[in-house]
Every structure is written in C-alpha cells, then in structure tokens.
C-alpha cells in the first residue's frame, strides 16, 4: 500500500475532498435542471393547449376583480364593443420582436353591457422621446368585434418591472386591471387581452408576437450533462491517481541506476 501513501499528502487530501464535494453538487444541479425541464414542459403544454382551444367570449373566463389563472392565460377570447381612445394610455419601456424600445398601446374597450375590457393593441416606437405622449394610430371606429389572447394582470413580483410613480400624463409601467378600474372609475374585467384580430391598418400598432415555447429540451440536455460530470469526477480522480503512481515509479526507476553506479566498487 506504500504506492498510495501520497494520497495522505496535503495536496491530494484537498483534491480528494474537492472531488467528493463535487459529486453530490453536480447530482443536485442535474435534479434542478430536471425540475426546470418539467416546469417548462408543463408551461409549454398549457400555452399550446390554450392557444389551440376554441375561442370563447371573454366574459366566460373573466369578470371584474377576477385573477386570470394559469389555465385561462393565453386562451383566445372574443369581445364586442367600442374602443374608448379618449382614455387610452401607453405602457412604457416595451420592446418589439427586434428588441426596439417603445410603448404598448392600452385602450379601454367598452363592452355592450357597459363593462370595460383592457386591450393591448400592440407596440409602437417611442422615436427617442419617452416623456411625450406618442401619436397613436386609431382603432376601428364604432361597434367592433375583436379577438385576442387573455393575459393576467402584471405585477412587479411577476414581471420584475418597477411600478414607477410620477410618470408623464397617460403613461403607465404595468398593465393592471385593478389600477385601471380606479383610474377609469369603471367595472374593468380582470386581466387584459393582447389583440390579434382585426389586424391594424398598415401594421401599426405592431401586433405582439405569439408567446412561443420555452426551450425545455435545453434543460434536459443540461440535466444529462451534470449527471455525466458527476460520473466523470471519480473516473478523473482515478486517472490522476494512476498517472501520479506512474510518474513516481518512473522517477524511482531513473534514480535507482544512478544510486547503483555511485555505490558500485571501483575496479583495478
């Protein structure tokens, strides 16, 4: 066992302890990636099911004060009413598909029963000016039927967007039906709708793109990768041990002939 005495040196004790600590850490990271994979897969399935579900009237899914649930989110809904552009606002610091910064246009949509639905009509550029109220293309006039994706109220906790106070007139940071109900003094349906039809004339406001799917297979690949790393640590450790033994034996073999020559008796 003297071949392995070097494992008791400070350098090898530290290396071995690090290897032992890495294995469970990598296994845990693999399980975390597995959890993310399952989360994202479930989210993708929910979104896909919602997007492909049959459109329903908006008031079947939401009402004043209602919190839109995960299963209701992204459902395609329809509504008939009139756009109230006089109380329209814009949502600051929103980007389009090209990551250009601008505004989302949020227009109250007064339903036939008098309740209000918040409709996000899409994205417009800020043209470098964030303080002035932008010029917004008008929606269809008169009684109109629209459809779109139902979304939950935005909050700072969920979005990471700070609800800044003291903004310029008719500008907001978050789309929140409770806050808009107070501003409008009306019964506002919970959540809001990202309009998909009818499409805006000349493409403005620019429609908000489909939410798409999260890259769940990437998390699956990371899961496998971490577990392979965990399996590779003891293999790598053993490889280093074998190389250390070989290097020590080679060094000893080179040193032995030199010692033999030095101790050999002189010939006459």
UniProtKB/TrEMBL annotation:
GO cellular component, one term: plasma membrane
Localization: Cell membrane; Membrane
Topological category with respect to the lipid bilayer: Multi-pass membrane protein
Keyword field: Cell membrane, Membrane, Transmembrane, Transmembrane helix
Source taxon at top rank: Bacteria
Composition-biased stretches (Basic and acidic residues): 249-258
Main subcellular localisation: membrane
UniProt entry tagged with the keyword Nucleus: no
Pfam families: SURF1 (PF02104)
Membrane-spanning parts: 12-32, 220-240
Region (Disordered): 249-268
Protein name in UniProt: SURF1-like protein
Lineage of the organism: Bacteria, Bacillati, Actinomycetota, Actinomycetes, Kitasatosporales
């Amino acid at each position: 066992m003297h071949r392995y005495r070097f494992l008791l040196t400070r350098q090898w004790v530290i290396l071995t302890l690090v290897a032992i600590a890495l294995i469970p850490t990598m296994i845990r990271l693999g399980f975390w990636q597995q959890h993310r994979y399952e989360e994202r897969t479930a989210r993708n399935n929910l979104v896909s099911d919602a997007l492909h579900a049959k459109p329903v009237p908006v008031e079947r899914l939401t009402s004043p004060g209602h919190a839109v649930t995960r299963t209701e989110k992204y459902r395609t809904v329809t509504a008939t009413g009139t756009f109230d552009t006089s109380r329209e606002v814009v949502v600051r610091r929103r980007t389009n598909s090209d990551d250009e910064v601008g505004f989302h246009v949020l227009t109250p949509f007064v339903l036939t029963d008098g309740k209000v639905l918040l409709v996000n009509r899409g994205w417009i550029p800020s043209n470098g000016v964030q303080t002035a109220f932008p010029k917004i293309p008008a929606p269809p006039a008169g009684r109109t039927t629209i459809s779109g994706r139902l979304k939950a109220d935005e909050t700072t906790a969920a979005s990471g967007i700070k609800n800044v106070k003291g903004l310029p007139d008719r500008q907001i940071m978050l789309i929140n039906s409770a806050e808009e109900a107070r501003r409008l003094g009306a019964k506002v349906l919970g959540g809001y709708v990202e309009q998909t039809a009818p499409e805006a004339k000349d493409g403005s406001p620019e429609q908000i793109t489909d939410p798409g799917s999260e890259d769940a297979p990437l998390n699956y690949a990371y899961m496998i990768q971490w577990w392979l790393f965990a399996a590779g640590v003891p293999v790598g450790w053993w490889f280093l041990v074998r190389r250390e033994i070989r290097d020590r034996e080679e060094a000893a073999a080179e040193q032995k002939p030199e010692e033999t020559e030095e101790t050999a008796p002189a010939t006459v």
